[in-house]
Amino acid sequence: MTEPTKPFPSDSTAVSFPSGALDADATVRHVLAVAGRYGLICDATPFHPEDHTWPDQPGDQGVVAAGGHEFQVLDSVIAAAHRGTGELWVAGDIPVRRGDPDWSWHVVHVVADDPRALLGERVRLSVDPQRRAGLSAGHTGCELVGPALNAALRDRWRKDAGLDSLGAPDFDKIAIVSSRIGLHGSVDRYRMGKSLRRKGFTADGLAEVLGDLEAQVNGLLAEWVAADVPVVVRTDGPSLADVRRFTCEVRQGPVVALCGGTHVATTGELGRVVARLELVDDGRELVLGTSTGGAAT
After folding, report:
1. Each residue's pLDDT tens digit, 226-258
2. CB-based contact 248:146 (threshold 8 Å)
3. Could you tell me the end-to-end alpha-carbon distance of the chain, in angstroms, rounded to an integer?
4. Which has fewest Cβ within 10 Å: 53, 99, 115, 274?
């Protein structure tokens, strides 16, 4: 837990990154200490923070400017303040999941220099556009490769399982243990242990057909990129605490997933999406590497 410069109000940060915004004017509401650096919290921001619950997409970097001075934003993370006690927690120390109604939720812009002179001032917030574009491409590719993998693996289920938005058993949601978004790419890891088998998934012989599965996944991805269909992040409201969903209408139906990240505007912007599958740890883990454009996994 850390101490802000004054008690927190009950309203969460208004965020504009779901629409793709890169710039915004805002008022600095709080300054706090963050791991030997400083954190700025504003009433609104275009900066996407790394989620403490599921840290897949890294936080945005950029600049906070006011009065001819610029502060380099080195990272963006989440802070949560308990509405009853006023206790403030930051990033991995937050004891609850994002959106808990007993807490207000805030984007912390991490800077190296002391920004306390900006408290209460209007500032210009600007996200690094090239880095955002790379992360958005990586995240869109990641959201598309999940249902493509589900489709390729659908015949390996012996029992009923939860379905994805395209109607296939949701292997991506059921088996995933970690996901990390990078510039123009991502790496997802899936546990292939006894728990997954008890749920009805058949992993026998998977290594022998991995190349065929990869080809099926990449065939679907190529189709969806070529279709150049819109990608939209739909939100339940303007604050960081509100639910956001990735939505994309492909030939097979709507790809919909809960997602707090940023994305490209159309699938065609990706240029291409290429998936690579690998079994590791003696077949107990499946690693899915995805690259977009000219990037390599």
Report:
1. 999 999 999 999 999 999 999 999 999 999 999
2. no
3. 37
4. 53
Tokens 């790394």 belong to residue: 50
Alpha carbon distance 254, 49 (integer Å): 27
Sequence-separated (6 or more) residues with CB below 8 Å from residue 47: 15, 17, 59, 60, 62, 73, 76, 107, 109, 125, 127
- Residues of the chain with pLDDT > 90: what percent? 87
Burial of 242 (0-12, 13-18, 19+ CB in 10 A): middle
CA of residue 123 relative to chain centroid, distance: 26
What is the rounded distance in angstroms from the CA atom of residue 110 to the CA atom of residue 28?
A: 13
Contact 63, 70 (CB under 8 A): yes
Contacts of residues 232-236 at CB distance under 8 Å and 24 or more positions apart, as own/partner, are 233/18, 233/19, 233/259, 233/262, 233/263, 235/18
CA dist list (Å): 132 to 73, 211, 251, 264: 13, 32, 28, 10
Report the C-alpha gap between 65 and 67 in whole angstroms.
7
User: Which backbone phi and psi does 94 adopt, to 5 degrees?
Assistant: -65, 125
Coil, strand or helix at 34: strand
Q: How many residues does the chain have?
A: 297
Q: What is the mean pLDDT of residues 96-114?
A: 91
